[in-house]
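README: folding subset

This subset contains proteins for which both the sequence and a predicted structure token string are available. Records are stored as plain text. Below is the entry for 3-hydroxybutyrate dehydrogenase (260 residues), shown exactly as it appears on disk.
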Amino acid sequence: MLKGKTAVVTGSTSGIGLAIARAYAAQGANIVINGFGAPDDIEKERAGIEAEFGVQARYSAADMAHGGAIAVMIAEAEAEFGSVDVLVNNAGIQFVSPIEEFPIEKWDAIIAINLSAAFHATRAALPGMKQRKWGRIINTASAHALVASPFKSAYVAAKHGIAGLTKTVALEAATFGVTVNAICPGYVWTPLVEKQIPDTMAARGLTREQVINDVLLEAQPTKQFVTSEEVADLAVFLASDSAKSITGVILPIDGGWTAH
Ligand code: NAD
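--- output ---
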């Protein structure tokens, strides 16, 4: 389905982004993976994608906190593969704290990585997509693009911002064969969720089990974590030609969370 196309997936050394990168490679796309991690682990993933799916995979170490590095990542992908056809703005971090104690540098980092990075990457990739009259921009938002939870002020603000960015760019790109959508997962068991458990325990005075069952899964009527593979399958569908009329959508995949 994506043979001859190139997909850049930010934050794809782990979790949801890695699942999306692998799913696009399985559809024949050349891939740019990005994110942090141990160099050996990243190289293993990169080489594994090439070997398993018979595509080309490159790694960009661009830090999503820096707009200049993001523009370079897109330019390098275009130079190497000839185009960036699918852009997934997925990199994200979390920090959990009451707002009175929320560290200012954590606020700045979350807004930069979870929101501004999508602006910088979209700004750099959209001109080529418009010129070729085909493109897919998929923003990994969150159920927190639609509803809030306490102690996540920066994350919820950034994800609501992503929803606004998604709708705006969808309107600007609509006549150019470029769709722009946001996927809004509920809780997916990834390092991002695992890492917030100790802080949530502290902020709410709960045990680990209470956080998992009474905070995380409490929000999700299915009482099950969403899987990265389910999110990746949705990203594949949104990149398909069957989804060409779906644009500007803030799409939950959250086990019913935002139906509340
Ligand atoms: P994860 O921690 O497994 O992966 C995050 C990825 O982002 C990693 O590859 C990491 O290296 C990368 N990253 C972090 N900071 C970066 C930076 N400055 N520059 C480049 N890369 C950076 O987390 P995940 O759960 O897979 O999260 C992926 C996205 O999904 C995030 O945007 C997150 O907000 C969103 N999301 C996650 C959940 C969930 O429950 N896990 C739910 C809704 C939305």
